[in-house]
Amino acid sequence: MSKTLRILHLEESADEVERVKSELTRAGMKIVSAPAWSEEEFTSALRDFKPDVVLCDHSRAPFDARAALLAVQTYRPAAPMILFTNAIDEQTAVTTVRAGAEDIILKRNLARLSSAIEAALAVRRRLRQLTPRQMEVLRLVTAGHTTREIARRLKLSAKTVESHRGEVMKRLGIHDVVALVRYAIRVGLVPPDM
Predict the structure, then answer these.
(1) Which of 73, 81, 109, 123 has the maximal Cβ count within 10 Å?
(2) Contact 104, 57 (CB under 8 A)
(3) Which residues, including other chains, have CB under 8 Å from residue 141's CB and lie 6 or more apart?
(4) Is-contact 38 28, C-beta < 8 A?
(5) For 31-77, what is each residue's pLDDT tens digit?
């Protein structure tokens, strides 16, 4: 990977952030990282630091992985979030992955992190080609709204919505709405239980 990755850490330990940086550098990744210690710092970093990847320790109460994931989906939907934690119960793991987290890496398996990041970026690479308006249309289409409803909601013509939808499908390399919905669920743009 030749590009310098911007990694945002939602973490309790500065030592853990340094350990991750060392491991990823050792694995050949070029990274710039920023830690976030609170919800306010986290949401601010999503907007200002603009991370390519988010690493989240799910145990940070009251700002847990689910809340962090919602913030990522709002501010940086093309950035994958990977849970990086000491331990996780099965229910939390399932609900977080179903909600759009890309992977779960236990801190004792740090060597797996670089390959998990590369895989997560590959899944979401196509999302980076979409404009904010196209992302908005994608979310509404995959949530089941009709062209007319989307046009009314976004104050656009139906023809413009159809044009955006066609461009979204072209840029994502997806040729039907069912596959579009599957992809959107896979990357957490719409909840799987909609």
Answers:
(1) 81
(2) no
(3) 150, 165, 168, 177, 180
(4) no
(5) 999 998 888 999 999 999 999 999 998 766 567 788 888 899 889 98
AA letter at 191: P
Q: What is the largest CA-CA distance in the chain?
A: 53
Tokens of 86: 């000491």
Residue 112 has pLDDT above 60, yes or no: yes
130: tokens are 């979409």
Residue 6 CA to its chain's centroid (Å): 13
Give the per-residue pLDDT at 81.
93
Beta strand 30-36 pairing with 81-85: unpaired
109: its two tokens: 């398996």
- Amino acid identity, residue 102? E
Distance between CA 65 and CA 99 in Å, rounded?
10
Q: CB of 51 within 8 A of CB of 45?
A: yes
CA atoms within 13 A on the CB side of 78: 19
Question: Which residues fall within 8 angstroms of residue 12, CB to CB, at 6 or more apart?
Answer: 37, 57, 59, 60
The DSSP-derived string for 60-91 is -SSS-HHHHHHHHHHH-TTS-EEEEES---HH
Taking the C-alpha atoms of residue 55 and residue 14, their distance in angstroms, rounded to an integer, is 13
pTM over 0.85: no
Closest CA to 102 of 81, 73, 124, 123: 81
165: pLDDT strictly greater than 90:
yes
